[in-house]
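Narrative of activities, Objective 1.

The group set out to show that a structural description can be obtained from nothing but a protein's sequence at a throughput compatible with the screening campaign. Below is one input-output pair from the validation batch, recorded exactly as produced.
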Amino acid sequence: MNFDIEKYCAEIQSDTATEKFEGLAMQAFYFQYMQNPVYHHYCDLLGIDVGAVNYIEDVPFMPVEFFKAHKVICDGRDSEIVFTSSSTTGSVPSSHYVADVEIYRKAFLAGFRQFYGEPSDFCILGLLPAYLERTGSSLVYMVDGLIKLSNNKLSGFFLHNHAELYDTICKLESMRQKYILIGVSFALLDFAEKYKLNMQHGIVMETGGMKGRRKEMVRSELHSVLKDAFGVKSIHSEYGMTELLSQAYSSGDGVYKCSRTMKVLVRETNDPLTIHASGSGAINVVDLANIYSCSFLQTSDLGQISDDGSFTVSGRFDSAEVRGCNLMAD
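Output recorded for this entry:
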């Protein structure tokens, strides 16, 4: 198979990527089967007849847990950056070896533009202490990129400085400047307990995760508290993980929509090789931006996928680790 990686990368970022998604996904599958030794071995262990794989539903989806124990990267590629997951005591973090970080940058920027517009239209405020206090966070890399692209002197990370964040939001409100506050759940709750706001020009986006800092909450409870504290009608959410380079976003109703480089499917919980385009089950993700690692991943999330490709997350397998960014159930 002749595979033009430059053409592929251009096509997944184009406006026609959604219409071409199936064909691009099949290109990614054959490329990764040939070039990624971990994925190749996984497919062979399953006894997959590669010649019979013609549709996304036929593709073997690899468990994300493989990123904990294996270096998932195509042959002949070195990693430009390694993204790592946060981990609870005693658990093994995932490591995503990213061969071309520019693909990630283009993917998260295209996703942001698809749902929100140009970063330069916003002031970007990051409240991500658990992520900033360690190295290798793909979320911090993304938010830092959006901060720089916002070209706003008030944009930035605030770590634990809630007073400065409050003053900045008040200033932005007085200026009628649009802004987005992107925060990990426990930090947003900490901030909400100290300050009450009327954010008429702001969007609050939670990325999930209590990180052991607070009691876990269902999304509806968390959003209710945050809406009351910040004076907003809805709380936005981002769905992503270390093993993915693409994101999905919710505008506040718990229904996520995928960026153009991402698609979700469901697998039957008692038969992981039986995959459907819609319905209830365990969530599989196709990430076209993961071309040098693995584009076909089984997650531990349970959810419901609608005919239009939007989805909700209803929970996780009992044996799965609690993770953030964003895996909160309704």
